[in-house]
Every structure is written in C-alpha cells, then in structure tokens.
Amino acid sequence: MSVPKLPEIARNPLAFIAARWTPNPVAVRRAALAALVMSVVIVITGGAVRLTASGLGCPTWPTCSGDSLLGTREMGIHHAIEISNRMLTYVLCAAVGWAIIAIRAMEPRRTGLYRLAWAQFWVVVGNAVWGGLTVLTKLNPYVVSLHFLLSAALITVAVLTWQRVAEGDAAPRPLVGKAVRQLGQVLAGATTVLIVVGTLVTGAGPHPGDSSAAHKVQRIDVDWKTIAQLHADFAWVVVGLSVALWFVLRAVDAPPGPQRRSTELFLVLMGQGVIGYVQYFTHLPSALVDLHMLGACLVWIATLRVLLSFRERPLTEPGEAPGARSAEGVGVRQARVRDAAGSGDRQPVDAARVPLADQGGDPLSVRG
What we know:
- The chain is mostly helical.
- It has helices spanning 8-11, 13-18, 25-51, 77-104, 111-136, 141-165, 178-204, 224-251, 256-281, 286-308, 324-330, and strands at residues 173-174, 311-312, 337-338, 345-346.
- A two-stranded antiparallel sheet has the order 1-2. Strands 3-4 form a two-stranded antiparallel sheet.
- Helix 6 (141-165) crosses helix 10 and helix 7 (178-204) packs antiparallel against helix 8 (224-251).
C-alpha cells in the first residue's frame, strides 16, 4: 500500500511561498522593522506586568491556572494584564515569522540573512520559556533580571537583521580607523554594564511584581539606592564616551553616517538621563519606570547602530559582476512569478541591482 504524497505546501511551506512570491526590498525591510518594533513592545508590556504587581496574575506556566490556558475573568485585573502580555508573545512570533517568510522569498537568496532571521525566532522561544521560569520561581529577581537581558539579546538580533537587509553580502569594509572602532567597542561594553546594573536596580527596588499576600517576593539583598547611584555613575561614563566619540568622529572627518548615529545616541542618552533622575527623585512611579525601560531599549539600539555605522557591506565583492551570485544558484528565478495580490505576472525585483541604503546607512525608497 503506497503512502499518499503530501502536497508541496505541507512538505515545505516556506519554499512553496518563495516559489510564488518575491517581495521587493522595501517590503522585506518593513517586515524586519516590524519584528524589531515588537521586540521592544514586548519589553514595555513585560515591564507593565511587573510594575502593576501582576507578575503572578497567572500563578502557573505554561497554563494560567491549573488546567486552564487562559484562566477566568474571576481571577481579576492582574490576571488580565498578565495573560495579555502572554498573548502578545504570539504577536511577536507572528512579526518574526513574517520577517522569516519575506527574507526566505527574497531574490537573490541570502542564506546568512535567513539564518539571522531564524535566530530571532529561537531567541523568542527561549525567552518565552525563561519567562515561564520567572513565574515558576515566584519572580526570583535574578531570574527576572536575566529575562530582561534575554530581551536585549532579541533586540540585538532584530537590529542586526534589519541592518543586514539594507546591505549587501560582500565582506564588511571599515569606514573609520581602528582606534575609532575600538572606542566604539569600549562604549558598547560600558553600555552593556550600564544595562546589567540597571536590572540589579529593579531587582532590589520597590516593585517586586506581585501584590498578593500569599508569599513574600524575594528581592536582591542590597540597598537599591546604592545600586541606583552606581547605575547613575555608569550612565555618566557612557555619556562621556559618547561625547568623546562624537568629537573624534568629527576630528577624523568620518563619513556622515557614523557622525549622525553618534549624535542620535547622545540625544537618546540625554533623554534617558532626564527620565532616570526624575523617577529617582519622585520615588519611582510606575509609569516613569516603564518609560525608563523603553529608554534602555532605545539606548541599546542607538549603540548598536553606532557600531554598525562604522562599516559598509557592498552588494558584491570588488570586481565581481552584479549577476555573478545569481549564476551560482542564488539569483533571480527565470520563471515569471505572480505577485501577492494576484493582479498579474511580473518579473521579480533583482535586489542585487537595487541600492538599498545611502552613504549614511539609511534605507532608500524603492518601488516594487
């Protein structure tokens, strides 16, 4: 008895879609940007869960309560907030999934970028499991802190994916000297320490994340004001390094891209600093703490964009014909494809022949 053969869409749905749809570069960039935006949104909503004391609104994981996946209305407002944040994880997965599909369907095929998009998905899965562990450990502050750091890792991969979509696949070429790149690396290291110390502030601060009297949520056993002062000290170190980088880039007459990115980082740091001091002197109101978490995400994104602006990746290696990669099996399909709207046949856009970004690294407008 022969086993019936599965249809192509069931065997390899991504290949099935890619054979029938070729997105233009703008669509792919928007998909990657949507994944990045959702990576930040999930951090903000996760912070809202803790700041509204809804961290144990669903006391179990992966279910919400007992055998119930979603729980019941009778569980109250804290349950509604917690389950809403859990549901947003599916929205994040959808955004990442859309980026994966769009990148898989690109022409020419870009294997490295495709793997980077899949890395986002696996980081989302890993962080979702770790988020469940925060519930199972009753909001252990160290587990909660690592949950945020995993979110920062997701943002890192999302930024890299978004940036790589607007670049070629040739080897990176530096736009600034080695000393400038090293200064940027020191800045990134200091920013990393700043974020890590910030998680310790939240782990020791007055927002444990649960309002029930069933048990006392563990806190990091240090004076949160002392850790907050250390956090502020590192913030000034980062600001000082960003100012130094700003002057150095102008002194060496760096390209407009790195200069613009360093200016953006400085402005984001100033805004984050204002929020930080205001929340400290107003005794950490929840709204400002959550806004500060958004600021932390923006500071990290701005830092990554500074580092990425220090190099460029052309479409092809020097001396290589634009269509050479297509001849090796990763080029434009020879067959005509039908566009997503089904309005008729068209030739797919050859991304290897379309400039995706200007000299400063900003995406160009491309018509599909």
